[in-house]
Amino acid sequence: MRKFILPALAGLLFTTPAMAETTQRDLEVIGRALSFVEGASGSDRTVAIVYDAGSEAEAQALASAMAGGLSAGRVTLNARLVPMADTGSIGGADAAVLLGAAAGDGGVFSAASSAGVMTVSTDMSCVESAQCVMGVQSAPSVRIVVNRGAADSSSVSFAAAFAMMIEEI
């Protein structure tokens, strides 16, 4: 029996993606977190969805979820699709959700950081490597991780009450 289970588990591990796709629930968590960013005004927040060719379908699905505005607590999220090759157009967004290869790309982080845009991903390695300000996971429970160094580099600061809800590295 063990001869069959171990190879099956090994096969499962090698075919399971390293990170989950970003979901509407993740977007809602991101939106609630955006309400704690200091200096933001109004309830509408523009979210740049930065994607590579391999994550274009996921980007389109997220943009569709935000079509007409996605209510997330006290804010409403509006999407703007940004191909990874066009990171110069990130400016003016309140946050940039990084998908696929964009989540670990130093050039994407640098472009967003210099524009003062908070970067976020569901890929926690992005936040651990300081290529994202915030990492979000909504399943099985909500987890928000903020990289203090990346936040400082991006001139992003949060209200003090937010510190009680997050992990900071």
Q: Could you give a quick summary of the protein structure above?
A:
The chain is of the alpha/beta class.
Strand and helix map with partners:
Elements: H1 2-15, H2 24-34, E1 44-51, H3 56-65, E2 70-72, E3 75-83, E4 95-98, H4 106-114, E5 118-121, H5 124-128, E6 134-137, E7 143-146, H6 148-153, E8 167-168
Parallel strand pairs: 1-3, 1-4, 4-5, 5-6, 7-8
Antiparallel strand pairs: 2-3, 6-7
Account of the 3D structure:
- 33% of the residues lie in helices and 22% in strands.
- It has 169 residues and is α/β, with parallel strands linked by helices.
- It has an eight-stranded mixed β-sheet with strand order 2-3-1-4-5-6-7-8, sandwiched between helices.
Instruction: Give start-end ranges of low-pLDDT stretches.
Output: 1-18
Specify the biggest β-sheet: 8 strands, mixed
What is the helix fraction of residues, given as a range?
Answer: 25-40%
The count of DSSP E runs of length 2 or more, i.e. the number of strands, is 8
**How much strand content do the residues show?**
15-25%
Measure the end-to-end span: 43 Å
Order of helices and strands: HHEHEEEHEHEEHE
| Sheet/helix structural class | alpha/beta
Q: Number of DSSP helices?
A: 6
Q: Tell me, rounded to a whole number, the average pLDDT.
A: 89
Overall shape:
globular
